[in-house]
Amino acid sequence: MGESFFVRMWPRLVRNEPAQVTELRRRNLAGLSGRVLEVGAGTGTNFALYPPEVTAVVALEPEAALRAEAATVADERIEVRPERLDEYAPAEPFDAVVFSLVLCSLPEPAGAVRQVRSLLRPDGELRFLEHVAARGGMLEGLQKAVDATTLWPRVFGNCHAHRDAVGLISGAGFAVTSVEDRMLAPAWVPIPTSPLVLGRAHG
């Protein structure tokens, strides 16, 4: 029930995404060039935001309904593929990998980040825009509470609100070179996915 609900809900959510999030998506992709791997492409919300210097994008999206929507908005640079990250074996490394609001939902996030590092060329870059764990206060308690239940992850596509995205990335051996914390709502507003981080890292 949860997975099908999320698949039905997600396209509606991203079509009505706050302008603040769209701008963060744009900034996450700004300056990229060459070959890019996007992990968890969803409905292709990022596709129109890739700069012209990006020559090819491999967009992984294992969920069939979301992948079908993504394929309708992909241009000639973008190949939408059905594999999960742990199933994908490219013929050559990528110049960059992009995470956009996906690390919270991966079942084995530490392993996923390590694999991503192995898919980058030696001077490649990881770009990330992610929900993150709140630091103290009511919001951190709320995140831990919803993660501890089965309902929140089931309904919201395995989302774990209290996940340390930056710690996972640095723990996989990446050098995190840029981190910007943002809030979609004031800390006292009970939205578990309000804290976001926009960042860059090199392998």
Structure, described:
- The chain has helices at residues 2-15, 19-29, 64-73, 109-119, 137-148, 151-155, 165-171; strands at residues 34-39, 54-60, 78-81, 94-100, 120-131, 175-183, 195-202.
- It is α/β, with parallel strands linked by helices.
- It has a single domain, classed as Rossmann fold (3-Layer(aba) Sandwich), CATH 3.40.50.
- It is globular.
Percent helix, as a range, is: 25-40%
If you consult CATH, what is the topology? Rossmann fold
Determine the mean pLDDT.
Answer: 88
What is the CATH homologous superfamily assignment?
A: Vaccinia Virus protein VP39
Spatial shape? globular
How many distinct beta strands? 7
Q: So how many helices?
A: 7
Order of helices and strands: HHEEHEEHEHHHEE
Strand % is 25-35%
N- to C-terminal distance: 38 Å
Class per helix and strand makeup:
alpha/beta
CATH class: Alpha Beta
> Can you tell me the number of structural domains?
1
CA gyration radius, whole angstroms: 16 Å
Low-confidence stretches: none
InterPro entries: SAM-dependent_MTases_sf, Thiol_S-MT
Protein name: Methyltransferase domain-containing protein
GO biological process, one term: methylation
Keywords: Methyltransferase, Transferase
